[in-house]
TrEMBL record:
Identification of the protein by name: Acyltransferase
Enzyme nomenclature, EC number: 2.3.-.-
One Pfam family, short name: Acyl_transf_3
Organism lineage string: Bacteria, Pseudomonadati, Bacteroidota, Cytophagia, Cytophagales
Domain Acyltransferase: 18-362
Superkingdom of the source species: Bacteria
Gene Ontology molecular functions: acyltransferase activity
Protein's organism: Hymenobacter mellowenesis
Keywords, in A-Z order: Acyltransferase, Membrane, Transferase, Transmembrane, Transmembrane helix
InterPro entries: Acyl_transf_3_dom, Acyltransferase_3
UniProt KW Transmembrane keyword: yes
Amino acid sequence: MSAPSFYRRPGSPVYFPNLNGLRFVAALLVIVNHVEQQRLFHGRPSWSAVPVVQRIGDEGVTLFFVLSGFLITYLLLLEQEQFGQIAVGRFYRRRALRIWPLYYAVVGLALLVLPHWEYLRTDGFSADIAQLPGQALLHALLLPNVALVLFGGIPFLSQAWSIGTEEQFYLLWPWVLRRAGGHVLPVVLGVFLLLLGLQRGIVVAFQAAQPTPAPWLNFTFNFLYYFRLDCLVLGAVPAVLLFQRRTVVLRGLMAPATQWLTLAAIIGLLAWGQRFPLHEEVYASLFAVLILNLAAAEKPVISLEAGWLNYLGKLSYGLYMLHYLAAALVLRQLGPWLDAQAAAPRWLLTLLATLVLSVGLAMASYYGLERPFLRRKAQLERVRAAG
């Protein structure tokens, strides 16, 4: 049966328009936040305390999570439909070839090389790393979110916590979809409600245990901030709706009024910059609607399909992992000159310089490190994905 005219499902190879551009937008939100953090760390004037600057960093990562949940779920459901079963081992190998090379390169640089680079140590930004054996072990085991809670952040590496969350999702999700059978949507919603219930239970227990919560409860409460599997699962919901052609629901979610209201809510909440209960779930739900429309609406109200956005989106993983180093180099080299500028030009010039250098580093990573592994990853694909 052909799809209704208001939406489209991807053909083969699978390609969703606009999502590469959205990846770049997510990376840019994080970079803006972290540039201001770096200025603060370097003892320079910073807007890092401004609520909107704080919020866009968090929600840029949330947007990455929802995107991952959407894309991974759709591809796995299509694989199950075409081949009868998800090949979990091949899925793990594909994810490893995509994520591990750059991740472990950045881990090695941040733990073993950059702390001893005198050029960066001049500002005191890189220091000797406390609990280095424990840090190294947890990062090697793909548990950077655990390391961040136990030991605190490491210069040039603290952004890697989200890789841990992604990897933990990848470890579980193909098994969930494989065992869901014909009940995918109820299972996905049930997993989300289970995660939400566990989170709220920990929050209530932590608040009730004040002022001296047990160490395990204190760790669990702080770890929840870095364990946003609920955001990834929310991204899976529109993928299931699209895959199963849930036309009645899709019609409502893809109506022009829904699209404009979703955009207005995202922009308004980010500009407000205020945290509120269930804020990650609220943003993740709005992002899920946005992603569905950008990816599959016949006439989305905005387009991110420009060639340059597509290209920068292709580099988004490198941008995310390497922008901390770029910001530190910019502030080390141009800091005194930037400090002499007025507030708005200083912010814009610092951001542009960091972005340009981040793109250069990401290109070097993509063509020099990642692309050979991506070619091997393509050989393992059962469902071809383009873009």
